[in-house]
Amino acid sequence: MSSETSGAREKVVLAYSGGLDTSVAVKWINETYNMDVIAYTCDLGQGQDIEAIRQKALRTGAIDAIAEDARNLFIDYFAYPSLAAGALYEGKYPLATALGRPLIAQLMVRVAREHGASAVAHGCTGKGNDQVRFDVTFQTLASDLKIIAPVREWKWTRTQELEFAAKHGIEVEATKKSIFSTDQNLWGRSIEAGILEDPWVEPPPETFQWTTDPRQAPDEPEEVEIGFEAGKPVSIDGRTLDGIELIDELNRRAGRHGVGRIDHIENRLVGIKSREIYEAPAAVLLHEAHRELEFLTLSKESLRFKTLVSQAYADLIYNGLWFSQLHQDLMAFTVSNQQYVTGTVRMKLFKGHTMVVGRKSENSLYRHELATYEEGDQYDATAALGFIKIHGLGQTTQAKYQLLQGTAGHRLELPSIIPPSRPEQE
Ligand code: ARG
After folding, report:
1. CB 101 within 8 A of CB 66
2. Backbone dihedral angles phi then psi of residue 397, each to the nearest 5 degrees
3. Among the four 43, 274, 301, 319, which has the fewest Cβ within 10 Å?
4. Nearest atom in ligand 1 to 97's CA
5. Is the pTM here over 0.90, yes or no?
6. With a 6 A CB cut-off, is 192 part of the ligand 1 pocket?
């Protein structure tokens, strides 16, 4: 018997945040697609009561609602690997939102299978990166599932959306709607739109929730010691902590000093530049501390090559290509590259800044007996002479036979951004 003749409707798993868009989406999907909605909510450390959100989904008309804690999955398989890989999009954004999407989509596919759903849905608009990350993940993991994106499809103004909500008795939060569009999880908060759309405007105080204005931050710096094992953070001030505790604590401590504010004009995958503000105290601090430990423990060549991997990895995350072979390849490199990145980094937090003040590792490639100018020096300085001759040979040869031909030798024309030489220098 087909579901039609039996009267049972097909099911769709909707990524449900509890906000207006996804609440309206429940009813809109019921009407537009004649499908039953299973609401899916997961905790990635966004600091919301997911059970309350689940209850709201049921009140809003979902036939079933699932809420689960995915914080450990998020840290172990998304945030920490991205940290070890050094993934900062365009050198700035620690990728909190971008890392959350493929995990949410993957968990939704599992729920769709368990409940025999034929579709999945999300509340992303048609202008951002998040729709790409959701859709590509769905298409990759479950190409048979239909994808519904109500907000992208209904093309309503806010007023029309509110009218629809009123008509269907959908709860609209009594508190006035945030003037920004935000997304958050343990790895960071993303804030955009509203007044922030003017890139000349300094973000007003209301933009920030996790970080103190650096001007109001404590007048005394605070020191924090972060321990890493093979590229993974494991302790704070000598206390071994699990990922949730560790990131929570660093978000609080670094946030109190105003650390982790990022103002980024970023290149979206969909071709536009957008202005996004981020608050990511723990992620910023961990990235800096981790990098410092790499300076101590990676060879010069590994360190240089790693920057290429970091950039490729960040782009892949940003562009929604998490479930690709390239990801596996880059992670294989990262795991190998990080095997000696074990040790402790001392960081100071002060008025919006982090500063490294010390580092140590049992695998340190900084060798005192090679670096010292004091007693115990084992470096063979006499060998430097021959080395310098050979190292400079290409350049000295070129100068002699090309660059200095026909000149007195000291008047080498150098390229410069300053306009060509001023006559009075003759
Ligand atoms: N621009 C960031 C990204 O593409 C964050 C997107 C979500 N931001 C938001 N304010 N809703 O990953």
Report:
1. no
2. -65, -45
3. 301
4. 12
5. yes
6. yes
